[in-house]
Design goal:
The protein is of the alpha+beta class and 290 residues long. The chain folds into three domains: 20-65; 67-172, Tetrahydropterin Synthase, Chain A, CATH 3.30.479; 209-289, no CATH class. The protein is 56% helix and 20% strand. The chain has seven helices and nine strands. The chain has helices spanning 2-22, 97-103, 107-126, 131-134, 138-158, 174-246, 248-264, and strands spanning 23-26, 30-36, 39-44, 48-51, 57-63, 67-69, 74-77, 83-94, 160-171. The strands form three sheets. Strands 6, 7, 8 and 9 form a four-stranded antiparallel sheet that branches. A three-stranded antiparallel sheet has the order 3-2-5, with no helix packed on it. The protein is rod-shaped.
Amino acid sequence: MNRGLLISAALAVVVLVMASSSLFIVNQAEQALVLRFGAHRATIKEPGLHVKLPFVEDVVRYDLRLLGLDPPDEQIILGDQKRIVVDTFTRYRIADPLKFYQAVRTETLARAQLAQIVSSAMRRVMGQVMLPSILSEERAKIMGAIQQDVAERALRELGIQVVDVRLRRADLPEETSQSIYDRMKSERERQAKEARAQGYEWSQQIRARADRERTVILAEAQRQAQIERGEGDAEANRIFADAFGRDPQFFALYRSLQAYRNALGDGNTTLVLSPDNDFLKVFGHGPRGR
């Protein structure tokens, strides 16, 4: 009785071991290779439960999803011998798991190989273009050529389908950027000096033209004032002459009063004169006593 139970238990264990060694599951994000003594027997891309020969066949799983490669920055020499530091990223998936297994076997080695392919394509394509092209609308065309080159080599050599290759950043090396900055700074300072000198010259010209116009305007105003002053003096003389002709004694009195006002008008003037001085004749007998 005990012997029969032991045999049953042993058979159950054998069955479980055989079942666990024969059955395997492939999920939706995976694809698998079934290898018999290292030789390819089947490629499985459909998810679900599958069967293999126990202890004879092995299963190698690879990711079926879109994967990313972000290699370190590297320097590239362009067609105009300018150096730039580029930062790229690549999106890919394993399209042919058998070729992938035969070429690199592991995803770690595949990343290293793909990084070399991307670097080689970048150097080959960008080594024929100039720096302004990288910074212009031609950049998309350049990246398209790089992606085509990488896609063809990766699929042919590694069984990898490259979906996208992008240039995330392209900068000049630090030492080059500093030298360019220094040159730009010197150029801007030179332009600023020229602009200041030109502005000063223009200001001198404007100031000289304004001074000349001011001088002309003042001279014309003075000339016109002298003309009007002369006409006014002539009119005053005519009026005085007419008044003198009408009443000479009143005119003499008016002129004497004007002389007194001019001589004594400020209140601080002291005159020492004899009583019979002609200047005081109005205070004596006046014009009528002569």
